[in-house]
Fold Dicarboxylate/amino acid:cation symporter.
Amino acid sequence: MKKLASNLTFQVLTAIALGVLVGSLFPAFGASLKPIGDTFINLIKMLIAPIIFLTVVLGIGGMGDMKKVGRVGGKALLYFEIVTTLALVIGITAANLAKPGVGIDARASVATQSAAQAAEAAKYTSQAASGEGMNWVDFVTHIVPHSVVGAFAEGEVLQVLLFAVLFGVAVGRIPAEYGQPLMKTFDRLSHAMFGVLALVMKLAPIGAFGGMAFTIGKYGLATLLPLGKLMLVVYLTMFLFVFGVLNAIMRYYGLSLWRYLGFIKEEILLVLGTSSSESALPRMIDKLERYGCSRSVAGLVIPTGYSFNLDGTSIYLSIAAIFLAQAFNINLTLSQEITLIGILMLTSKGAAGVTGSGFIVLASTLAATRIIPVEGVALLLGVDRFMSEARAITNVIGNGVATLVVAKSENEFDEAKHQLALAGRDVPPELEAEPASLLPTVEKPVEEQG
């Protein structure tokens, strides 16, 4: 019992259950716990930039091959585009088949919104009207920071990633007598940063409790009932995407989705409690490296995927857009739905891994279509937070699968480390940099089942 109580998975799961209980029984008190969840997420964000920088520099500096870096990045982006486009198509198909918006009088519902709800909806519609959240040119140019210090200070993942790639390439090209001592220093710093992360993760149950208590306390379980069919369609579609599409991809590369999900269960529960995929970003880099991916691949693919590989967000955006069209009794033609997919292929890439970003992108997408009224986003305010958890979990799972795919295709997957991870044994620190042939061997389990 003592061992179970000290298990992080058990602690986070218990904290989530307590958060739901407190939010339901004492909604005002639960809503006031928002700072607890926010503070924990800020602690994680504090570590994201330095961990990404050190991981990518160590990976690329050790790789020393710019062509290989470009090839890894190219494969990752190609995978992102194919899979997220598939997620959009699946989402629109599911919404057309299930018709979650049919029977809802959207215009009457929007007209009866409270002043507070109307004001919150206006915040998103005004951003959409001004073009914020969907300007693709601005999004691309924003990747290049005005200053390196500013990128780290603001926690801009893609900006830090760009600088880390350039820095890693530069380190790999300087003479070994200068580069090796620098790499050793960065390696020690990397171990120290992950040590800090381990300390922060001890607070994960508290953060999950605060985040869940706030969600239930502010929005209440009763808000789920009117739009229950929409939530059911979103959750089921994401479930089918993970255990259908992603499972098929994993099986193709000789990996087990179930074993992978079991390995990252703590990160999944953390995202469930905090409703933010960013809370799991640093841990996912470490977990995927321990699972067998090379440091360079994990360091490149995971951070990039947080902006370009949002499978859950893509599914949510496509279903929500069709739902609103149905709620407003707008019959979209096939060409209009294809246009909608094209717009979402661009706007969905600008959604960050934080709560609320998908809502802004949805409003921007509706504004761009000029078919579905933007004010319809007010209908989703009550349930968006609950669906945010589903899309954040799907995003995290999808990014891990993408990393495994790229690592496998680049022969950057260490089977010996993978077997150690499945056996629940960490690689000894003194052997972390050794070839796979020198790692401790473990008996290979019966062929993995998807």
Remarks:
- The chain has one domain: 1-424.
- Confidence is low (pLDDT under 50) at residues 433-450.
- The chain has 22 helices and no strands.
- The two ends are 31 Å apart (CA to CA).
